[in-house]
Description:
Strand content: 5-15%
Structural class: mainly alpha
Order of helices and strands: HHHHHHHHEEEH
Oligomer: single chain
Amino acid sequence: xxxxxxxxxxxxxxxxxxLLRQALTHRSHGAxxxxxxxxxxxxVLNCIIAAELYQLFGQLQEGELxxxxxxxxxxxxxxxxxxKIELGPQLRLGEGEIKSGGMSRPSILADAIExxxxxxxxxxxxxxxxxxxxxxxxxxxxxxxxxxxxKDGKTLLQELLQxxxxxxxxxxxxxxxxxxHEQIFKVDCVLNELGIRTEGTGxxxxxxxxxxxxxxxxxxxxx
Length: 223
């Protein structure tokens, strides 16, 4: 099973099809699920990002590097990457998870990204996993700025707009999915003066706003 949309997105073709299949399989689907690969991928991802940050920012101390890594390797970022490469439709979920919107759930998507990285490590070693991580995180690494570490998306966006004497963004809920205790929120962020509109998804309205705000900040800052 080579899932072409995924192998194209990550820039790596597996020698062992079963590893990719397992990486995309949630525990609700069957016994051969992705949790062990997710465990491995989490460690490999943290190692690779740490090494990249170490090379990129030779002037930073350990605590500052740790904060940068935490800002890159977290559920929100992994979920955002999963949405970008349209990972959700490729997942193998049980019937209950499908009905409750599991293919959009941040935790499931974030875990699956880590499982794919873990699978690449098992299939092709460290170099293969590193190529996948850099393909997925390359743009984020390129725009990582130590001066903004620790600030969330909404704060960064507000500070940028205030510095430019522009109106604050407008957020609105586009949709909600799933059961009441496991809802997935989709929110948009609109910057009328810049003609920017972004979307964010999260387990709460606030987390979805943070994702949308960070995307808007990155677009606005590029201008």
